[in-house]
Amino acid sequence: MGKYWRSVLNGFMLGAFVFLWADFMELPLDDTLWILLTGWISFCVVLIGYYFIIQKQFYRKLWEFTKLLLDSQDVSGYLRQYEEMLRKTKRPGHRQILLMNYATGYSLKGEYEKAAEILEQVQEQYLPEMLRMAKYQGMAYNFFMAGEISKGWQVVVEHYQGIEECMKKGYGISTMALTLALGAFTMGHIQKGFELLVTSIQSGIVPWEIQNAKLIWAREALLQDRDKEAAEILEELLQEKTMPNVELGARRLLGFIKQQEKLQ
Asked: pLDDT tens for residues 52-64?
């Protein structure tokens, strides 16, 4: 039983104790009910306050992990922190959020199949609608990047409306636009794909969101025989502090371009 429900049970036990105490003291029923009511109000105030303190501490910890990653680009350290926190965390809702962030670490390492596998384990019944869509967006993105195009497209088709609705509400615009761009490119909608990449780049909050979108831009530009444009983007990326997936992807694409130039 979780701490929250144990607290509720303790509240009921407290109420029962008040009735027994009032009966022993032969207090009038009105006085007993008044004591019980004020006691319950105080109990609820304390319980709600406790809940918000726990939530604040939880999200502050997640921000500390993200800030450390932004400062150091140490994805392996980021993953170890989440592994430790997952071992200690019992609350189902918190565990699902931890798993989603844990999967992000594997995406940033370029281990897209592993990231998708972790996201598939996330139990959406413990998540609000916005986070459920973030789960599906993440699954689709990682499937696309792992080369499992049919799986990625299936997720996009099934949850397209929900993902678009999240974007309209301003939630996760950069990552969701990037995933929809990958879907558009898959279907041959090149112009739409680049439009979505512009949205992703302009709405990126953390550097890796913008860099991931630029990497995809370079890849698609290369497929459109815009080699010079692709090379410029890739060289710019390699001059920045990037996550392993972007650095590896940029080096591979740039190596391919240089190899093609030698063959000409």
From this structure: 566 688 878 888 8
**Cβ 89 vs Cβ 69: under 8 Å:** no
5 vs 156, residue with greater confidence: 156
H or E segment and range at residue 28: none
Residue 122, SS3? Answer: coil
Q: Is 241 helix (H, G, I), strand (E, B) or coil?
A: coil
**pTM of the entire predicted model:** 0.80
Q: Measured at the alpha carbon of residue 14, what is the angle toward residues 10 and 15, in degrees to the nearest 5?
A: 120
Tokens (6 digits) for 28: 């009038």
Q: How far apart are the C-alpha atoms of 53 and 256, rounded to whole Å?
A: 52
For residues 154 and 67, give the distance between their C-alpha atoms in angstroms, rounded to a whole number: 34
The answer to whether 247 and 238 are in contact (CB under 8 A) is: yes
Q: What gap in Å lies between CA 141 and CA 176, rounded to an integer?
A: 9
Nearest to 215 by CA among 170, 172, 187, 185: 185
Q: State both tokens at 60.
A: 């502050």
Q: Residue 206 corresponds to which amino acid? A: V
CB 200 within 8 A of CB 163: no
